[in-house]
Input
Amino acid sequence: MNVNIYNLVAGEVLPITDVNDFSFSDKLLGEGFGVEPSNGKIYAPVDGKISTIFKMKHAFSIQVTERVELLIHMGINTLTIEEGSPFTLFIEEGQSVEAGDLLAEVDLAALDALLKERTIICAITSMEWIQDFKLHQVGQAAVGDLLASFDIPDNAGFQAKEFTNDSQ
Output
């Protein structure tokens, strides 16, 4: 099964190794990419289901298949920001989403005022279940541009279950 990852926010796309946070740049949390956003609107990069929303609302996960998840992390070192402060979420856990759905909005000026970097990160946290990750584009990208892809092998030892909007 091939999975395409589309751009989640307009801006400058960079390889995950260029993200200014070693947890991401050293790929401790998986493969992926960062985007230096030109605005704060965050869209779904894939079809899936919201599996986790972090307490401070700075990050959430999208379950793509039974065992494959993407982590969306808004800003660098934003875990310490007061709950919800510059982050507005339009999602809830268990909600099905489609690529292109508006998921969140980040107040970039508030991040700047808190001296936090704006980088939006998309990381595949379940690398053991995928192969052939490819980052197709770096540089300026619009929302919805194809940025990356990966394969989930047929012999991964489980049944890949795609989520649709009517999945519960």
Remarks:
- The chain has one domain: 2-151.
- The mean pLDDT is 91.
- Helices lie at 22-25, 108-113.
